[in-house]
Amino acid sequence: MAETTTGNGDGSTTPVAAGNRQSGSGSPAIAEAPREKLTKKAITADHPTWCPGCGDFAVLAAFYKFLEKRNLEHEKIVTLAGIGCSSRFPYFVNGHGAHFIHGRAVPLASGISLARPDLHVFLFGGDGDGFSIGGNHLDHGARKNINMTYFIMDNFVYGLTKKQTSPTSPIGFKSKTDPTGAIDQPVNPMKKLISGGATFIARTHAANVAHMMQLIERAFDHQGFSVIECLSECVEFFPDVFDPANPKKGGSFEVIQEKKWDGTSEDELRHDVTDEVAAYKLATVPFPGVFGVFYETDRPTKNSLEKKWIETTREKPGNASDLEVLQKTFDKMK
Ligand SMILES: Cc1ncc(C[n+]2csc(CCOP(=O)(O)OP(=O)(O)O)c2C)c(N)n1
Ligand code: SF4
Ligand SMILES: [Mg+2]
Description:
alpha/beta; two-stranded antiparallel ribbon; 11 helices; globular; binds thiamine diphosphate; binds iron/sulfur cluster
């Protein structure tokens, strides 16, 4: 979870105890007005423009539930996205947010997360946005372990642009770009994320709101680059593709049994979420695969490493101002 900090006006932040904020230098502390509980009404913005029945509605509903449950500071909620039907998400959340360039949501979110580590940065988007045009950015956000929670709504198709083959479309899928059926090997999101270096990797389904909620909470509580792939049906351009994974349509929804470390013989068969190779093996289970947390590890975030680096850089010239540090750096280049 993000630590509570206050801006120092120079781009840096200082941790403050909740309810102990100062109104300005030299002025007495002003008691904070009690916060009203965050309600669904307060966080709802425009009425979603998705097609009736689109899986993305359920993701939004789960996100509203999560925000209400965790009662986050309203002004610290940031929702960001690239372009796509799923990427329209920030329009529907009343908070800070941006609907950015197709595939460039991770760099945008990275800048915001690094500049304002006190904010809760949530990123939303589709399989095309995340694994195709944004695939390279996804890898670098993951390896740098930049603190954010990324929800990829995977419908195996480009929905907004009306049915082109996406990087997760199965072989044989007929679309406007593959009228005779897709021939290319699809991306395996779990494998890509594991090898990319993401530190929290999970998989869920939009038909299972309770499961989505559990995973959003765990991803949010994780420090670092946390990603959830959520199968979310495009009822318009790829209907029923998730039936085998949708309990509401009679499909199976096999949840990963995580190790409890209770020393029992059953536990030996359970999944160790810190075991990268075991996570990779789970990712090879054929469609519909398994659902839950594949991998989770603790690694320093870029946010924390960069903070330390900035502090030592400032300390060296005797806690000089940012401008003085910059000037000294330029002087050295002369
Ligand atoms: C640079 C750029 N290339 C292509 C497009 C066209 N475009 C917009 S959304 C999109 C794909 C959306 O697919 P996905 O990310 O899976 O989201 P979905 O609509 O399925 O939720 C494409 C190709 C664009 N807007 N910008
Ligand atoms: S086109 Fe598909 S993904 Fe887009 S809103 Fe409609 S059902 Fe959802
Ligand atoms: Mg898509």
